[in-house]
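As described in the Methods, two query proteins were run sequentially through the folding procedure within a single session, without resetting any intermediate state between them. The first query and its resulting structure tokens are shown here.
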Amino acid sequence: MSDQRPSDRPGPTEPPSAPQYQQPQYQQPPQYRPQDAALFERSAPVGSDGRPPLWAPWYGIGFVQAYARYWRKSVRFDGRASRSEFWWVYLWNVGISIVLGVVWGVGFAQSGRETYTTPSGVETVVTEPSALYLIMGYVGTLWILAIVLPSLALAWRRLHDANLAGPFFFLGLVPFFGGIALLVLYLLDSKPAGARFDRPEGSR
């Protein structure tokens, strides 16, 4: 008979604990950030003067530079135009049109007029136009004619920058909804795939 107490007796052998498996830590893929795409999209080539060549888009262009570039590329339908290129020019043209309209209005106020009542309403007719009224009428007409082609080319290139074909411009001919759709397209972000519309001058 053993003289050992139950607490002193050796118990059953416990199996060794299994080694703890630690799950390897995998590096998380980099998170997508819109600013990374913006940097990629704005990797336009730069010329010897530190500016993009004329055939390439210019992202972040300034107010005055955008308008000068607009006239230099007035008949170019190839390539792309950044949103800043497009909207700075739009602001320029709207501002100039307002100024011309105001001056024309002054000429209209200086002109002799007669008011008639017709079945459709009241009409005012200029009977003795002032010199300013006539001059600004011609200037305004020439101004509109001058910006038609360059503005069409700019819109074409803006669509290219969003990786859309230029003929999407004609959506604007659809009454009401076409103009809204075209405005949305002009506001689209730049797409790197739009480079397919570029025609580098050195490759011609």
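Immediately afterward, the second query was submitted; its sequence and tokens are:
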Amino acid sequence: MTLYGYWRSTAAYRVRIALNLKGISVTHVSVHLVKDGGQQHTPAYVAKNPTHLVPSLGLEDGTVLTQSLAIIDYLEAVQPDPALLPSDPVARAKVLAAAHVVAMDIHPVNNLRVVSHLADTFGADAEAKRQWMCHWMDKGFEALEQMVRKDTRFSFGDTPSLADICLVAQYYNARRWGLDLTPYPRLTKIEETCLALPAFADARPEAQPDAE
């Protein structure tokens, strides 16, 4: 399999963590989101992923999967151990809800193309962009701090789940944009616990071959 991603992409970061947790090896291909106007916009890449986004996962038969949560769902289906979602329906729904706070509430308004549009169309300067990013992360983390369990090593149990994957990737972005994480001690502790595991540590953006 081939993972098309970018070192700083939080969505690609999620998939790298999931691959590592499941012990799945892939070939990594960097798609630079800034260089040459954004390599995600080249005809060759758009033929693989019409959304102009990363990550994409190329399978051995030529099929290309897109969207990080859909890719992780595929990995969960083809290699269910270790499980990233609980089998109990209620527990599963709670993990998904937490993951969706990051992937569907925070991330859609916190990615490169949104920030670029704010600058290009509305004249947002660097500080305005920072405030925008931090505002939406604050809103999401405020909810997550209450949603995760307080009596477990990870967000919802003693093994990592999809919720932890999404949280750790978004926390990287929060630190990058200078968000004050003091109000979120439980989330910060979960991040620390996760990053102590090689599967998370090896997936960090700064550990990637294309890191700048």
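The first strand starts at residue 2 and ends at 5. We note this only descriptively and draw no conclusion about the first query from it.
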